[in-house]
Amino acid sequence: MSGGQGKDGTPLDIWDCGSGARMKWQFMSDGTVRAMGKCMDVAWGSTADGATILLANRSGNPAQQFRLNPAHDLVNPQADKCVDVRDKGTANGTRLQLWSCDGKDDPKWSSR
């Protein structure tokens, strides 16, 4: 998450792997993906391509539901779209967005 801040509304981004709390995400049984006591969320519950993926207080709304499918896409079922890296960026700090799943290799997600 941008700046390593665990605050409601913080946009999410990619970063080199590390061991800090902002790097430890958990897939929960209620369908949320959480870090630092907050949930991954699609801003304003949008279903549009380009919607920002951010950190939010848990609300239980469909914008906070994500599934890791067998193709390793991280999908928001409400939008039926994938968590994507903006402009196919690879640099630290590149923001995450919601985007139509296209089956290509970028990005792919995993849990361990």
TrEMBL record:
InterPro entries reported for this sequence: Ricin_B-like_lectins, Ricin_B_lectin
UniProt xrefs under Gene3D superfamilies: 2.80.10.50
Domain of life: Bacteria
Domain Ricin B lectin: 1-112
Protein name: Hydrogenase expression protein
